[in-house]
Amino acid sequence: MFYTDSEILAIIGQFALSGIVLGFLYDILRFIRTAFATGAVFTFITDFFAMIFSGLVLMLLSVDTPTGRLRLIYIISAAFGMILYLITIGRLTAFLAGAVAKLVFCLRNSAKKFVFNPIYRFFRFIKQKSTSIFDRLHKKMKIYKEKSDFPRLKSGGFVS
Known about the structure:
Elements lengths: L4 H32 L3 H23 L9 H16 L1 H59 L4 E3 L2 E3 L1
Antiparallel strand pairs: 1-2
Helix pairs in contact: 1-2, 1-3, 1-4, 2-3
């Protein structure tokens, strides 16, 4: 089955639009990674799954249904749409992700300074006081045990 020129251009436009959508989905992952400063392993895993997902979507969409042939022009137009998205809007969202990352960093430091550190100091204070109380009790119990006249049990029986 042959397509007219306008149908081919419409199909190429649709694949460019699908590339833009795939670029948007990748941009969401990039935004999350940048905003929350994830590690290299998480970056690798998300990039790997994004690559597999994009490849599967493009493979499924680029098979010409009537003939069953893989159309390379569809994949190229989708890649062009994704690259176009990442060069234009993707650069803006990368800038916004950097600003959000700075905001998240400031909020995290503020929460650490004003919420978590006082709570940590409070629990550390309780631990220190309870440790000193139990140390004093242990010393008193040891002195009381040494002064007592009660028979103590040993493995062989009573010792007087």
